[in-house]
Structure formats: C-alpha cells, structure tokens
Amino acid sequence: MNEEVLIVIPARSNSKRIKNKNIKNFFNKPIILYSVENALKSKITSLIHISTDSANIRKLIQEKTSIKIDFLRPKNLATDKTPIIDVVRYTFNKYKSKGYNIKYVILLTACSPLLDEKDLIRGLKIAKQNRTNYPVLGVTEFPTPIEWALKKNNNNTIQFLTNDFSKNSQKFTNKFYDTGTIAIFKSEVLEKSSVNKFFKKFIPMIIPRYKAVDIDTKEDWKFAEIIYSGLN
C-alpha cells in the first residue's frame, strides 16, 4: 500500500429519498461496507477516508472495519446542495495539510455494492495512463439511442424529443452516462482555484451496465438487489 492515492467515500446523514441510505442493510450488511471493503481489498492505498458528518456512521465504520475516521465533515459541506467536488477538495486539502503527498483522489460512492475491488484497480490504472488533467469518470452505455427519448406532456401524451426516432439504431453513435459510482481526480486539478474547464471533458472508465446502478430511489435499491442476487 502507499499514500499517493486517497480514496474518499462520501456518506452524509439525513438522506431524503431513502432514509439512512448509506447505512441501510443491503443483504444483511450496511450498504456502505461494500464500498469500504472493496477499497480495503484493492490494496491500492492505506489512505481511505469516509467523509461523513454523522457520529453514528463514524462509529459504525470504526467498529466494523480497520479504518479510523480522522475528522468529520463540516455541516456546511453536508447539505443537499453541496457539490460533491467541494467535499472531495476539502478532504484532499485536509490530508495535504497533514503532510500527505497525494497524487490521485478516488471518489467512490457509498452505495456501490455492484462494483468490486478490481474496478478500483482498473480505474487507477486508467488515471495513471491519462496524460491530461481531465478526471476519469465511471460511465456506461445507454441501452437505447438517446435520440429515441420521449417526454411526457401536460395533457398526458408523450412525444419524441427529436426527429431522429425513425432512424435505424445502427446509424447512431454510442452514447454514455455517468454511473454515479466512481471518479478519479489528479491532485493538480484539485489544487486549482477553478476546475470548471476540467469538468467539460472526462476520460471514460466504461463499466458494464449490470454494475452501473446509481441507487437514489427505492426502485433503484430493489433493482440493485435483483442484480446482486443474480451475481452471487
């Protein structure tokens, strides 16, 4: 293990759509433990931080794992409107002030039970091969062309968003979306006062669709359970 890599797992309290989502049991284990255990099993770093404002989450992590949470997240960075990059930068700067020479920061979400330690290893490898400062982003391919998307109208009808709906699917280029599970940043980006230009483009880490469930709703949770049970 080394300390040139920092893994940040955000886990604030008071989730809205799923109560206590980050510590809710997923197959008889708090869901956050899947991400924590994958970070540990990857053995890519000894520096793993669970960014939480909750004393209860801190206690759970320190009782169930070998990780010691050095500091809690400030309340002003634990609101519904807090950009996740602000949490990542805050954590990076805290460890930098402690003398750590961090080169890469891996953002791993707390509700990513379908990923495994090999995904973290692969993501870091992509980041190290990346000659730009653009972040590595976990993405997966849309199952159908986005040109076939429809919207719902006020009169309860639906209509296509574009005029391309009659085209054959082979005529469209592949499109991807953010899985909401993992991203990797070079320290140079986090040290800059403005990072907007680096968030206009990303280096893709393509994740299989069955691993790409972003758990925000109860339906997402059930879907993840169905996939997980089929894989194990």
Q: What's the SSE blueprint?
A:
Blueprint: E1 5-10, H1 32-42, E2 47-51, H2 55-64, H3 84-97, E3 104-108, H4 117-129, E4 136-141, E5 150-152, E6 158-160, E7 176-186, H5 187-190, E8 203-206, H6 218-231
Helix pairs in contact: 1-4
3D shape: globular
Which regions have little confidence, pLDDT < 50, spanning 5+ residues? none
State mean pLDDT (0 to 100 scale): 92
The tally of helices reads 6
How many strands?
A: 8
Sequence of secondary-structure elements: EHEHHEHEEEEHEH
Hey, roughly how much beta strand do the residues contain? 15-25%
Radius of gyration: 19 Å
What does the largest sheet look like? 6 strands, mixed
Distance between the termini: 28 Å
Strand order in the sheet with the most strands: 2-1-3-7-4-8
Concise summary:
This protein has helices spanning 32-42, 55-64, 84-97, 117-129, 187-190, 218-231, and strands at residues 5-10, 47-51, 104-108, 136-141, 150-152, 158-160, 176-186, 203-206. It has 232 residues and is α/β, with parallel strands linked by helices.
Description:
- This protein has helices at 32-42, 55-64, 84-97, 117-129, 187-190, 218-231, and strands spanning 5-10, 47-51, 104-108, 136-141, 150-152, 158-160, 176-186, 203-206.
- With 232 residues, it is an alpha/beta fold.
- A 6-stranded mixed sheet has the order 2-1-3-7-4-8, with helices on both faces.
- Strand 5 and strand 6 (158-160) form a beta hairpin.
- Helix 1 crosses helix 4.
- The longest helix is centred in the middle third of the chain and has 14 residues, at 84-97.
- The protein is globular, with a radius of gyration of 19 Å.
- The model has no long low-confidence stretch (mean pLDDT 92).
